[in-house]
Amino acid sequence: MELKWKIKPFEALTVHELYNLLKLRSEIFVVEQNCVYLDLDGKDKLALHLIGEYDGKIVAYSRLFDAGISFDHASIGRVVVDANYRDKKWGHNLMQEAIAGIKSNFGTDKITIGAQLYLKKFYESHGFVQTSEMYLEDDIPHIEMERG
After folding, report:
1. How far apart are the C-alpha atoms of 54 and 66, rounded to whole Å?
2. Residues 52, 55, 58, CA angle at the centre, nearest 5°?
3. How far is CA 126 from the centre of its chain?
4. Which of 10, 78, 83, 138 would disulfide-bridge 37, Cβ 3.0–4.6 Å?
5. pTM for the full model?
């Protein structure tokens, strides 16, 4: 079975969608990665929310931003796949959908991301190249990467 994809602005999210996507982000970025940080950074209202559902459950998610919000170029952030579904390699589908969503909604191929260093090869497989030295964000090694 394939994932069902949708892109919604903040105002169009249902209460249940918002709760479930925030729960998924907390499960991965706070609990799994053992990182105490404020996920609710004020940018959710400015993002388009890319949601991948499987059997009615949000299992893949990312935020899409127009240029000038997180970086000078459009950007993708909070890229996450539910740990119970990672064996399906849906992270690749998620990135393909996110890149296509940036193009169709913001009309650009130029994308910047702040990537966790351990995922460098994953993002390179989607056309991103490293553009910064390693830096720590919430005590996790990151690099900036660009595509397009």
Report:
1. 27
2. 35
3. 13
4. 138
5. 0.95
